[in-house]
């Protein structure tokens, strides 16, 4: 998919630029774009490395588990089909906590672990269960407290207030998560 | 009042979280320094792993922009954006966001460089990137891991949440920082 988007951007740009007499601009875009991409990566590296370091400290201090415990009432509410004390619920909560903290590397393995635990309860292998769909609805709608990569990008682009978007991001992520939880409940019966 | 509260929260969030995490870790007798250095090393590896993707995407977007084709495309889809008073520059990002994490990160970088990180388009694009996920990637990886072939309503729910998140991002930015 992204392969085609990339091809369309490149071929479309070069052909359209040639037809409209913008070909020198296209040449500049290739040369300067490459240079600025690497400058950007270097600009990003500091903030992202710092945040990963802090998140590693958080994980070793057991904060992921603490957050997972704090989330457990919400978990039982959202996943009524999972037996309490089943490892599936624990794995889901850990994965949600890792997502909230932005420990990107940890979130995916934890999420896959949660899927495997839910699959053990699945009576129709090959077909997603209600709990799996709810879990994916929450994961794809994203749960973030600190969008570290975006803040790093804004910093690199010379923003006067790189962290100002934390409030709007939390608002938007709350809305999309609520919509995901609600439409999951609503559409569940129509897709059996 | 609420605005002051929100902007105070944005200003305090980062230092407070760092304080909280480091203190909690110290109380639990974690070797904070060595844990931090390990994590920072992983972070650097991540950055350099995404570097080629960013390079590919940024150059392609620059080419598309400088040729004038981006203007043409955004003019065509502008009416959709007008429905929710979104600036047309952020619409391509909304389309790419559910499909590719590195692709949308490259697009965000392009928007921030082109229009400035503190412009309306820059703020909305930042919020969209931070508040949504790469829906199709997650669906593929998570369902693939347990060989689920019938995803039922999950893809539709993911996309509806992406649309809602985009509209919420536009509303939040227009409300918090009126242009």
In words, what does this structure look like?
The complex is a heterodimer of chains A (192) and B (179). Helices cover 77% and strands 0% of the residues of chain A. With 192 residues, chain A is mostly helical. The radius of gyration of chain A is 21 Å and the shape is globular. Chain B is built from eight helices and no strands. Chain B has helices at 2-27, 32-66, 69-83, 91-96, 101-115, 120-131, 135-145, 154-176. Chain B is globular. Chains A and B meet through α1, α2, α5, α6 and α7 of A and α1, α2, α5, α6 and α7 of B.
Quick recap:
Chain A is mainly α and 192 residues long.
Class computed from helices, strands and strand pairing of chain B: mainly alpha
Profile the largest sheet of chain B. Answer: none
The greatest inter-chain interface is formed by: A-B, 106 and 104 residues
Helix count of chain B, per DSSP? 8
From the alpha carbons, calculate the radius of gyration of chain A and give it in angstroms.
Answer: 21 Å
Task: Please give the largest β-sheet of chain A.
Answer: none
Strand content of chain A: under 5%
Low-confidence stretches of chain A: none
Rounded Rg of chain B: 19 Å
SSE string of chain A: HHHHHHHH
Key features of this structure:
heterodimer; A: 192 residues; mainly alpha; B: mainly alpha
Structural topology:
The complex is a heterodimer of chains A (192) and B (179).
Chain A: H1 2-19, H2 23-60, H3 63-78, H4 87-101, H5 104-120, H6 130-140, H7 148-156, H8 165-187
Chain B: H1 2-27, H2 32-66, H3 69-83, H4 91-96, H5 101-115, H6 120-131, H7 135-145, H8 154-176
Helix pairs in contact in B: 2-5, 5-6, 6-8
